[in-house]
Amino acid sequence: MQVEETPLKDCFLIKPKIFEDHRGIFLETYHRKRLAELTGIDAEFVQDNQSVSSYGVLRGLHYQKGEFAQTKIVRVIFGKVLDVVVDLRPDSPTFKKTYSAILDDQNLHQLYVPKGFGHGFLTLSEKSVFAYKCDDYYKPGSEGGIIYNDPDLNIDWNFPETEMILSEKDKNLPTLKEAFQ
Q: Please, what's the b/e burial string for 36-74 (b: 16 or more CB within 10 A of its CB; e: otherwise)?
């Protein structure tokens, strides 16, 4: 695997080695020891999650707070998404900075999202199957979120807002200023 630093501290783009022949492809989607050697970070993942979304579905920006914050490795099994992360760690040199990447079933890239980051994605294909590993269990009382169109974050989703499909919960998330008062 190849690991690239993103402009955000502790956030990495992971490019797995893909073996392809006349039968199809094979790739290793996770290797704890190798990832630790390449990043210096060794997380123990305890929960895998998966979602299926249709074109225009935006999920996020979500995070887990406090002692239940989660490190994640996210990837697309089928389809194509614009994946967006924001550093929400007040003591980080990249606090309030965002990063986005196209994750799809062709490039098979993954994103390592550290604790203290907000995360969201927008489905750009007819359908997407999105998977993520978490290093802690989901705790409903510890969830948080930031509205996808926060003016201070100024995220370019490169997609018509009128065509986005959001849950009622995601439509009513607070701004960054409101969440971190």
A: eebbeeebebeeeeeeebebebbbbbbbbeeeebbbbbb
